[in-house]
Hints:
Layout: E1 11-12, H1 14-28, H2 35-52, E2 56-57, H3 59-107, H4 119-122, H5 127-140, E3 143-155, E4 160-170, E5 174-184, E6 195-203, E7 211-213
Parallel strand pairs: 1-2
Antiparallel strand pairs: 3-4, 4-5, 5-6, 6-7
Amino acid sequence: METRAASTTTVPSQLAIAALVVGAVGVLLPCCPLVPAVAVILGWVARRRIRLDASLSGARMALIAIVLGAVGLVGQGLLFDWFSHRFREEVESRSERIAAELMTTATLDSEAPVPSSWSAVAGPEGRSLRSLGRTARGRYGAFIGLSVVDWTYAGDLGSPDLTAAVIWRFEQRELTGSVRMLLRPSTNLADPYPAPEPLEVVIADERLGDLRIGTPDAEPSSDPVPEPR
């Protein structure tokens, strides 16, 4: 008597197919942070169901989806690390440039209007900024430049700020100090980096007294203070 072997018909697991599609999307679109994780979860669940149900096939697809998801997670981690480094580098570079421009403008013998983004430290028509500039120039001579020693991030997501500890270089002296910036979120997709806006400027001087603008109770005198002989 001829015995006919029983045949088992299997169907591809729809969950495995979905996991594979999601995994491919996660690799092709690394800007979507949750997609690779979803691919890993779907792939793992699909493999488990396939092992428990003999009528389902697609274990290899589920495994590929898990691998793609893992690759996507690693790629997103590297992309996030690169962007974080680029973000800090760009924001700090802009902040340093603005701090140098601010002190240069302050110490110039000019009544040209200051940028509106400096309103927090410039005061009405820039008088506070001019006051600091005249005092600093009278004490230390012309402003030459600055060097950033350290950066400190503070605030919260709604109102982040950045403080640069700096060395101010003038003709006659070098002094430490700081510049605090408010990081205003960008609304320009072509330039996603926040716009630094000066909030406070400090020139630390133990001999003649600190110069500070940005807080109403700590503005410098409008009269230049000469360097002692």
